[in-house]
Write a structure and sequence with these properties.
Rossmann fold; 2 domains; 5-stranded parallel β-sheet; two-stranded antiparallel sheet; about 55% helix
Length: about 260
């Protein structure tokens, strides 16, 4: 016996086709542009959920299958509502945190790692480092921590690449401190705290985080575990890639909040 489908209502066809289109867009972005990231996976998952929601409106003869479709439809609907509410809230916090605290006067700032490419900073990392250079020029007595460890298969740490970039652009080596053990944002800030505690002999109270605008909210949330006052200087992200990074950051923040609850 084949699956007893009569027809799918027009509105559900629109939802299903829209979901399929979003899934394809996510796959194309993953394969040809950004790779398999939080952002592209998020787009794909959204598309799959919309497609599945539309498909549950298919009319069938079996009462048991109709009941299963009804329960699945309600579950997906509730999940979509919760997802939309949480997305709007978290994205609001992310965009609210993009404003820089340019006028703060602190002893140390930290540039968070963002990957290297062939021994050179990635484009995102260059933007963060350029913001760090501007900070040092505006605060002659401040020092900069470059934070990033050894990635898989790398013989040079991300922090060393960052340090070389700064020195090539005229920053005095004595104003640069390296943190080379970290692999995540949490480790960036935890190990930076330990480094500065060793440097000053006491726990540091204030810190300026220099990172990408989309990453600032999560970075400040993490940093609040290690520093009593946290400020931020955000490097700009091109609009062409902001959508991908915004979705990726939403999922990362959501994961962080779930882990804190657990």
């Amino acid at each position: 016996m084949g699956f007893p489908i009569k027809f799918m209502p027009k509105r559900s066809r629109v939802i299903a086709v829209g979901g399929l289109a979003i899934t394809i867009i996510g796959l194309v972005l993953a394969v040809f542009t950004f790779g398999l990231t939080f952002g592209t996976v998020g787009i794909i998952m959204i598309g799959i959920m919309l497609f599945a929601y539309g498909a549950t409106f298919i009319e069938v003869k079996s009462g048991k299958i109709r009941l299963i479709f009804l329960l699945l439809r309600r579950l997906i609907f509730v999940s979509i509502i919760i997802g939309c509410v949480s997305f709007i809230y978290i994205e609001g916090r992310i965009f609210e945190s993009m404003k820089s605290n340019d006028d703060v006067d602190v002893k140390y700032a930290v540039v968070l790692g963002a990957g290297i490419d062939g021994g050179k900073p990635s484009l995102t990392l260059k933007r963060r480092l350029d913001s760090g250079i501007q900070f040092l020029e505006e605060h002659p007595s401040a020092k900069l921590v470059v934070s990033g460890g050894f990635g898989s298969g790398l013989r040079i740490s991300e922090a060393e690449v960052m340090k070389r970039y700064l020195i090539e652009r005229g920053i005095n080596e004595g104003r640069i401190l390296k943190e080379e053990k970290s692999a995540t944002s949490d480790e960036n800030l935890n190990y930076t705290q330990e480094l500065l505690r060793e440097q000053d002999g006491e726990q540091l109270q204030d810190i300026v985080i220099i990172t990408s605008d989309y990453h600032m909210f999560r970075a400040k949330v993490i940093a609040s575990k290690y520093f009593s006052r946290v400020y931020g200087i955000a490097s700009d992200t091109p609009f062409s890639i902001m959508i991908n990074y915004s979705i990726r950051e939403y999922l990362a923040v959501l994961k962080l909040q779930i882990l804190e609850i657990i």
